[in-house]
Each structure stands twice: as structure tokens, then as C-alpha cells.
Write a structure and sequence with these properties.
Blueprint: E1 5-9, E2 16-20, E3 29-36, E4 43-51, E5 54-62
Antiparallel strand pairs: 1-2, 3-4, 4-5
């Protein structure tokens, strides 16, 4: 496991906070995880496309759905 920190903007309050995806160094594929906002505590659904442990794209959406 490598630390893979990303700064995201909350879907609800638009504050930024850091998340640690904790993805494997050699992982390639799609990852979906819920992170609660550090500011407003609402659930943000984080969709990432990962290639060789590097985040290629990251989408933040409503984790309540
Ligand atoms: Zn928030």
C-alpha cells in the first residue's frame, strides 16, 4: 500500500480537504469510495480511474445516492 493523498472539493459545502485513497502501487482500474467531508461531514463519493497506482481522473459526487 502506498499513501495516495488527493485534495478534493466537497460536493456539499465546496470546502477542500485531503483524502488518502490507500491504493496499491501497481493497481490499475476503477475505485469508488465514500469519504466524509472534514468540514460538513456529508458523504462524498469519490470515483477514481487509476493506472499503475497513479490517479488519472477523480470525480466527486453525492454519496447519499
Ligand atoms: Zn463539506
Amino acid at each position: 500500500m502506498v499513501s495516495n493523498e488527493q485534495t478534493i472539493t466537497c460536493h456539499f459545502c465546496f470546502e477542500t480537504f485531503e483524502i488518502d485513497l490507500g491504493i496499491d502501487q501497481n493497481f490499475s482500474g476503477h475505485n469508488t469510495e465514500i469519504f466524509d467531508c472534514e468540514v460538513c461531514c456529508n458523504p462524498n463519493k469519490i470515483d477514481t480511474e487509476i493506472y499503475d497506482g497513479e490517479v488519472n481522473s477523480l470525480t466527486v459526487s453525492d454519496g447519499n445516492e
